[in-house]
Amino acid sequence: MLELHLRLTEFRNLQYLHNIVKFLNRDKPRAAFIERFASVLTESGFPRMPARVFAALLATDSGRVTAAELAAMLHVSPAAISGAVSYLVQVNLCSREAEPGSRREHYRVHSETWYEAMAHKDQVLDRCERSLREGIEVVGRATPAGARIAETLAFFEFIQTELPAMLERWRARKAELGVVNSKRTTLSARSNRSHAA
Q: Among 28-42, 71-85, 121-135, 136-150, which stretch is predicted with the lowest mean pLDDT?
């Protein structure tokens, strides 16, 4: 009987160890995805730490975590998280949310992150277009530099004109796919705007 009890205890200990290993390994595939996707973003020109934070936010079920949670998940300092989040907020890929009654902030990636980011690009494109028009005036339209700047301006104007229709097509596609919209930003009507070159 004692031998049976010892074997059962040994089995329970083995099962307990198995559960611990299983618990410790459960996030390895998620961590690997975060690093792979962050590398793809980095290779595309995204800064490394914001790419890792963004990928971590995307891969978190709630899409909402604190700086301490992100720091633990990515094995970095809270200061690195703070700088990365500042960048992500600036480019509209995440938001900061205050915890009521607490000084802690939560960082959130919304389900329509790419839509939101693209919807806010019209403001950036406006500033670029104004600056490019000034550049054409400075270097002269008839110069090679002026021609390059004018081509860049024409491209930005094209994107600015096409962006609202493209975002509407995306909304329609999301509806076809049955994806629920939790938040929607409306672009100002820019497609009918005429651009002066």
A: 121-135
Within-domain flag for 127: yes
Chain segment 56-112, per-residue pLDDT in tens: 998 888 888 899 899 999 999 989 999 999 999 988 888 888 878 877 888 988 777
Beta strands 64-66; 95-98: pairing state: unpaired
Chosen domain end from 81, 109, 137? 109
Please indicate, yes or no, whether residues 98 and 163 belong to a single structural domain of this protein.
no
* CB neighbour burial string for 124-146, b if at least 16 within 10 angstroms, e if fewer: ebeebbeebbebbeebeeeeeeb
**Which domain range does residue 95 map to?**
28-109
Global confidence as pTM: 0.63
- Count of domains in the chain? 2
